[in-house]
Q: What sequence folds into this?
């Protein structure tokens, strides 16, 4: 199992996940990132801020390389791999 870190980016601001989570494969990582982005979008919709949502989840591997980016405002769209 490998550890992945789910950082939150809002423009130039990056909130780093210091603990990370362990996953057995990249598909499990992708599913977790997408579920997290949906949660963010859902909360923004409840508070009426979804229209101004520019957050994205940047998933990094143990070496610190960004391997996946999921824009919270586009969780039904394409997920890009870096």
A:
């Amino acid at each position: 199992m490998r550890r992945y870190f789910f950082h939150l980016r809002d423009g130039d601001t990056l909130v780093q996940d210091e603990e990370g989570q362990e996953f057995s494969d990249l598909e499990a990582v992708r599913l977790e990132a997408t579920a997290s982005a949906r949660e963010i979008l859902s909360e923004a919709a409840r508070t009426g801020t979804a229209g101004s949502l520019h957050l994205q989840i940047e998933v990094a591997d143990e070496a610190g390389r960004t391997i996946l980016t999921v824009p919270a405002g586009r969780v039904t769209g394409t997920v890009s791999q870096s």
